[in-house]
Amino acid sequence: MKNVNSKEVSVLISGPFNEPFDYVLEDKNTNLSIGQIVLVPFGKRKIVGIIIGDGTKTIPETKLKKILQVYDFEPIPKPSIELMNFLSSWYCVFKGLVLKMILSPIEAITSPDYEKVYKSNFLNQNEINEIKITNKRKLVLDFLLNLDIGKSQNDIIKQTGVSKAILKDMTQKNLVQEKKVYKTLNLDSHFLKNTKENKKNYDFLNLEQKFAVDRINDAIIKTKSDCFLLDGVPGSGKTETYFETVRTCLDQGKQALILLPEIVLTPDWEKRFFKKFSFAPLVWNSEITKKKKKKIWLSALNGSAGVIVGARSALMIPFSNLGLIIVDEEHEQAFKQEENVRYNARDMAIYRSTRSSSPIVLASATPSLETFYNAKNGKYIHLTLPKRATGATLPHIKLIDLIAHPPNKGKWLSPLLVGELESKLKNKEQSLLFLNRRGYAPLSICNSCGDKIKCVNCDAWLVEHRSKNILICHHCGYSRVFENVCKKCGVEGQIKACGPGVERIEEEIKEIFPKARLIVLSSDTMNNHKILNDTVERIKNNKVDIIIGTQMIAKGHDFPNLKLVGIVDSDVGLSGGDLRASERTFQVLQQVSGRSGRHSKKEDEKGVVLIQTFDTKNPIINAISKNNRNEFFDKELVSRQHANMPPYGRLASIILSSRLERKLETFSSDLLKVAPFFKNVKIFGPAPAPIYFLRGRFRRRFLIKSDKNVNIQDVILNWTRKINTPNYIKLTIDIDPFSFM
Ligand SMILES: [Zn+2]
Ligand SMILES: [Zn+2]
Fold first, then answer.
1. Strand partners, 482
2. What CATH superfamily classification does 189-385 receive?
3. Which residues, 6 or more positions from 193, have their beta carbon under 8 angstroms from its beta carbon?
């Protein structure tokens, strides 16, 4: 990394700042470089920041504040700094807030654990051979030869069998030097040795998989920042395919990052990884301890970590030598962060890969429309896996018209679906019922006065969770005990559940098939990885007959004996009215359908998917029933083009929120008064947000739509800076919004 020339430097500090501040280093002997992490005084506080260049020399040196501490780590690498700058300008957020994400966990920097290591003072074998020492001492020198980082006392004793006294003696005689370094993980296994077994041994893959591996490997070796779409039907072996490219990356001595939505990052996935590589990947998610995070972060920075797999925040880890990024389930909304810094980790990962001249692979069975579009027009390299890797045939999909074959009164399953469930039970095959609604019923109404029970903090219904006897708001988490008394009219025993949730389907199944072994898979019942993992094992081992699940079940799992998928309500989500409602519904339904019959090779054992719908003519439902994804995408692209919506146009929103409703109204109309006029920019609003009252705040929204070539960020920044935002108003800019709540 580039050195800075003077002792006066510009430091960007973490926090809500865009511009750096000048500081001076008193210790003239320390060399500073760009990216170096330092501690500086700011007002009365001490804040961590990084050096981003020479000082501006606008303030005399004597008046500058002094750097308090220069941390002893490798500097933050250039690609991470470039990512910070780009992310900040793309999403209109402070650079210092992005830096804060990069420097997280901050404990890694401010309180690292140190250990003593020993390094050899000899550069090569010849030098060692020339001196006269005992065999034991020679063993130590051989062990330490060519190690950048050195080895701890324990490692050396374990490996060579020498005593502490010998090591001490060697230090005194200057054969080795003792150094204090921060503790990272012991990751010798993390890079593959170029052994025979490691060479291109992927005969178990099919032709399409091999072709994909070869293309991606080529980009890794030639350090080309190509973007690949790995587009495979569910069960086509996408994971096996990208594992081979991770192997190549490690072979090249480079680091690989695998981004997964947290929900897919299961112990099951980790097991598959271990089976492949014989070492565990470093996992970065919300469940790991700070201590572990600290070590992973430092190991990524010093280059000893080979593979890190993590949720979206793993993109911010300062890898020193990144050679490959995989974004699995790239269409997932989970890659978009909706609080604090609003950014899409998938999109930023693509930028990050260009900075390290390394390829990126976006994997999905149901790519996002934007990605599909970019692959179609050649911006991304489209690699398709059209066949199930197991050789299984695709499932047979049928629609159930709920108007012609309605469920019994007060029930939710059509007799056709019940009949199919019965036949699967007889054959000892598994069935899955999918309904993307947690709890017992999405809405509770008082039969006496008609009041619909609402959250106290939001414009949302409280959802009854009968198993826990509570009502919960799925938006803010507010909950209260369910008492069958209306809070409005006071009448007792008249509160009625409306519509089905997974618990209600469970109740229905228990009535029809009292002996069937049931399991409900939702974020309420599976609230940690261990429970989820045990349940998945039970399903795989045929200890379950019928699974009832929410979106949680849609991905990642492979259940060999699952032969029927029943979609209880395919119409959920289609009426949402936001830009991606149909796309999302399509993706979820297609993924759930893909769970069926993943190992059925014979035509008569084919998996079955039954979709209950009131709207058999709906184009989405039709495209799914014909298994024709591309037809659906093409139609959806045409309608987006007509509306000049992404990927054809650009979209952003400004969300204004406040606890004070009147003041919010006044400020919104003041902001509208200074709105810019451009031919190719349209501004809608301020309209009440679809959920107007959320977590105790009132919310209004502007939607900004522009042609693709417009710098929508500039338009918005110039506009919102025209008037001061008072402190009782929160103004949030959301570029490329996903959520339209
Ligand atoms: Zn009432
Ligand atoms: Zn709420």
1. none
2. P-loop containing nucleotide triphosphate hydrolases (3.40.50.300)
3. none
User: Cα of 484 to ligand 1 centre, how many Å?
Assistant: 10
Cα 699 to ligand 2 centre (Å): 14
Residue 346, both tokens: 């998938």
Sign of CA dihedral 405, 408, 410, 413: negative
Alpha-carbon torsion angle 533, 534, 536, 540, nearest 10:
130
Distance 690 CA to ligand 1 centre (A): 26
Q: Which residues surround ligand 1, an ion (CB under 5 A)?
A: 446, 448-449, 451, 486, 488-489
Task: Please list the residue range(s) of the chain that carry CATH number 1.10.10.10.
Answer: 114-182
Instruction: Tell me the per-residue pLDDT of 88-145, one tens digit each, with 9 for 90 and over.
Output: 999 999 999 999 999 988 887 888 777 788 888 888 888 888 888 888 888 888 888 8
CA of 437 to the centre of ligand 1 (A): 25
**At the topology level of CATH, where does 114-182 sit?**
Arc Repressor Mutant, subunit A (1.10.10)
Among candidate residues 435, 463, 437, 438, the one with its CA nearest the CA of residue 548: 435
Structure token digits, residue 520: 């409900």
Phi, psi values for residue 499, rounded to 5°: 80, 165
CA dist., res. 300 & res. 152, Å (int): 19
- pLDDT for 21 equals 95
Domain with CATH 3.40.1440.60 in the chain: 8-105
Q: Is the peptide bond before 75 cis (omega within 30 degrees of 0)?
A: no
**pLDDT tens digits for range 467-507:** 899 999 988 888 999 988 999 999 999 999 999 999 999 99
Residue spans in the chain of domains classed CATH 3.40.50.300:
189-385, 396-437+500-636
Q: What percent of the chain has pLDDT over 70?
A: 95
pTM: 0.84
* Statement: 396-437+500-636 belongs to CATH 3.40.50.12370: no
CA distance 546 to 430: 6
Residue type at 518?
Answer: L
For strands 697-707 and 681-694, give the pairing.
antiparallel
Strand order in the sheet with 479-481: 463-465, 470-472, 479-481
CA angle 727, 730, 731 (to 5 degrees): 120
> Which one, of 388, 416, 409, lies nearest residue 567 by Cα?
416
Ligand 1 centre and the CA of 485: distance in Å? 8
Q: How far apart are CA 530 and CA 266, in angstroms?
A: 9
| Spatial distance between the Cα atoms of 500 and 509, rounded to a whole number of angstroms | 13
Q: Which residues of the chain form CATH 3.30.70.600?
A: 649-735
Q: Is 224's pLDDT higher than 90?
A: yes
Closest ligand to residue 695's CA: 2
DSSP β-bridge partners for residue 308:
257, 282
Quote the Cα angle for 58-63-65, to 5°: 100
- Tell how far the Cα of 446 is from the centroid of ligand 1, in angstroms: 5
Half-sphere exposure of 427 (CA within 13 A, CB side): 14
Give the model confidence (pLDDT) of 365-398 as tens digits.
Answer: 889 999 999 999 999 999 999 887 777 777 788 9
pLDDT (0 to 100) of residue 555 = 65
Structure tokens that stand for 599 in this block = 């190992």
Instruction: Tell me the CA–centroid distance for residue 453 and ligand 1, in Å.
Output: 9
What's the CA-to-centroid distance between 551 and ligand 2, angstroms? 21
Question: Which CATH superfamily, name and number, covers 8-105?
Answer: PriA, 3(prime) DNA-binding domain (3.40.1440.60)
Q: Which ligand is nearest to the CA of 697?
A: 2
C-alpha of residue 452 to centroid of ligand 1, in Å: 8
Q: Is 357 left (phi over 0), alpha (psi -120 to 50) or beta?
A: left
Domain 649-735 in this protein, CATH class: alpha beta
